[in-house]
Amino acid sequence: MAKLLYITANPKDVSNSNSLMVGEEFLAAYAAQNPGDVIEKLDLFAADLQEIDADILSAWGKFGPGTGDSDTAVERGKVQKMGATLEQFLAADKYVFVTPMWNYSLPPRVKTYIDSLFIPNKTFKYTETGPVGMLEGKKAVHIHSTGDVYSQGPSASMNFGDPYLKAVLGYLGVKDYSAVLIEGTKIFPTEAEAIREKAVAQARGVAKSF
Predict the structure, then answer these.
(1) Residue limits of the Flavodoxin-like fold domain (predicted)?
(2) Check whether domain 3-208 has CATH 3.90.180.10, yes or no
(3) In this predicted structure, what is the pLDDT of residue 121?
(4) How far, CA to CA in Å, does 29 sit from each of 19, 78, 109, 203?
(5) Which of 16, 56, 120, 134 has the highest CB neighbour number within 10 Å of its CB?
(6) CB of 186 closer than 8 Å to CB of 147
(7) Residue 135: is it exposed, middle or buried by C-beta count within 10 angstroms (0-12/13-18/19+)?
(8) Is residue 159 a known part of a binding site?
(9) How far is CA 25 from CA 42, 60, 108, 177, in A?
(10) Annotated binding-site residue? 19
(11) Any known ligand binding at 116?
């Protein structure tokens, strides 16, 4: 039995979000294919995430990242909050990120979340030959919606969403990475429904082998 962590980063309702709609179709197909697996949902806009602030940096400076210790209650509480986010991530075998593109990148809540995952000797380690990810064997899918087309063409140089997520997860050792891209729904409004349907079909296919 595997555990899938379904991570969403969109404050909209499912009915008003292309990425969330396609994500729900992915989940339904995955659950049907893997009835014994555990699916845990994490809404980053509802989660109490701890950002890196002065207290976190102070605690890390004294005790090192990921130690969960500090000499003040405020610092200790914040470090432990970040640690709980990391432990939830580590407990999963598979990850599904569902995001829109905001201003050529991902919603800032995603960056705050990722900051909780980059902890030395937890998700990566330094070696004589450079950093090595410690999450080998885990896999991820990114379901990502954009109003324009960014995977190719003239706007590709402004694509800092999906490439970023692929890069940071790869750094942590998650090399098995797939993307379901819902592209061009704003610049091709008459084709938006067909674009969503194509993405749903792709998501269902990825889910069956995920």
Answers:
(1) 3-204
(2) no
(3) 93
(4) 15, 37, 27, 8
(5) 56
(6) yes
(7) buried
(8) no
(9) 17, 41, 25, 19
(10) yes
(11) no
User: Parallel, antiparallel, or unpaired for β 124-127 and 176-183?
Assistant: unpaired
What type of residue is 175?
K
Could you identify the residue written with the tokens 């899938």? Answer: 4
Q: Looking at the whole model, is its pTM more than 0.85?
A: yes
Residues with Cβ within 8 Å of 121's Cβ and at least 6 positions away in sequence, in order, are 66, 134
pLDDT along the chain (210 residues), means of 10: 97 96 98 97 97 92 66 86 96 98 98 96 94 97 97 95 98 98 96 97 96
> How many C-beta neighbours within 10 Å does residue 189 have?
11
Report the C-alpha gap between 153 and 75 in whole angstroms: 46
CA 11 to chain centre: 15
